[in-house]
Amino acid sequence: MSSVSVLNVNLYGKPIGTLTNLGGDRTIFAFTDEYIEHPDRPTLGLGFKDEFGELYTDFRPYQKRIMPFFSNLLPEGHLRKYLAEQAGVHPEREFYLLWALGHDLPGAITITPSDGDSWPPHAADGVADHGDDRRENALRFSLAGVQLKFSAVMEASGGLTIPASGVGGSWIIKLPSREFSGVPENEFSMMKLASLIGMNVPAIDLVSINAINNLPEGVDKIGKHAFVIERFDRLSDGSRVHIEDFAQVYGLYPEDKYGNGTFRNIAQVIAAEGNDADIIEYIRRLTFNMLIGNADMHMKNWSLIYPDRRYVSLAPAYDFVATVPYLPGDATNMKISRAKVFSAFSLDELTHLAVKAAIPKKMAIDAARETVQLFREHWDAEAPNLPMNDEVRSAVETHMKTVPILEELS
């Protein structure tokens, strides 16, 4: 088989651009003429707008890595290594990894070879030769993040099954962490609380690992439960809804998701591109995660969604986990507006963020006040009954008292 140097980038099943391997691990992206000239073209991402709001079309080549927007479609850490090993691809060869996993990516993007060839490419193109059978049967999906997770299908009986190829599921199964105990129970509890408070949370569940059908070989069954969340980028008929995370919006590689962005940056985009409901929802989520001590609210854990294919809204909530039981300390890992610690999340810090992000100050304060009051109410009523363990419950209760806004807006 001849080597493939061009991949089609498809949005909602239609080609809109190409990723070309120029040799020597150099790649470049280009839009098709048809997409550029389309007056009502669907939006690929906010980062493709120039300073005047027009489509940006002048892209530079990238060495070894693909451009950040597409790199963010790939998994990280243990999940990347696992899927790359399944496909026989070196995890750092992103062009080939995107080719291997491009059948089922986050949002409405798919990647296909331009000449119609299917996976696998020739081993000389940088892919380890593990045999045709293994590569043909590799898992072909990609989910962003480092945690081991799989796409699954909900059966008529209510059970969850992971498709043989990993492609086509409308639910995400997040397996227990190897490093920290009780993470699925923690995430379920925090997402349930957020839902009770009124935030936009997809359907969620906590299921026995033994009840998951077709769990891939080689996956350790650590712990008893898995956290399950319905995919908001998939509809019930299997069609795709486009999304992008804020690392994609700002053109950051995944490893820069903490240090090169701020919560104010996210607020500025939502204020400029969203509506009042999006702004209120953002302030509610920010306040909630400060109160539970979630230091993992990086740029990839906030996303935008394109319900009409052109204009954005804030995507539903995901990845709400209290990290203070595992990583004690005051650091938020991403700057709020001026400060980078939970103990600085005060009415003054929130007001500074609102002013700098061009958010109405009263709107921000009212949203935070309602969140604080509902948080207190539902924590007192529900925390003893939720499946988080005692260590998590105790750590959150100790932490919330160090966040000034809890007392200021009660």
Automatic annotation (TrEMBL):
<dbReference type="GO" id="GO:0005829">
    <property type="term" value="C:cytosol"/>
</dbReference>
<dbReference type="GO" id="GO:0004674">
    <property type="term" value="F:protein serine/threonine kinase activity"/>
</dbReference>
<keyword id="KW-0808">Transferase</keyword>
<feature type="domain" description="HipA-like C-terminal">
    <location>
        <begin position="141"/>
        <end position="379"/>
    </location>
</feature>
<dbReference type="Pfam" id="PF07804">
    <property type="entry name" value="HipA_C"/>
</dbReference>
<dbReference type="InterPro" id="IPR012893">
    <property type="entry name" value="HipA-like_C"/>
</dbReference>
<comment type="similarity">
    <text>Belongs to the HipA Ser/Thr kinase family.</text>
</comment>
<dbReference type="Pfam" id="PF13657">
    <property type="entry name" value="Couple_hipA"/>
</dbReference>
<dbReference type="InterPro" id="IPR017508">
    <property type="entry name" value="HipA_N1"/>
</dbReference>
<protein>
    <submittedName>
        <fullName>Serine/threonine-protein kinase HipA</fullName>
    </submittedName>
</protein>
<keyword id="KW-0418">Kinase</keyword>
<dbReference type="InterPro" id="IPR052028">
    <property type="entry name" value="HipA_Ser/Thr_kinase"/>
</dbReference>
<feature type="domain" description="HipA N-terminal subdomain 1">
    <location>
        <begin position="7"/>
        <end position="111"/>
    </location>
</feature>
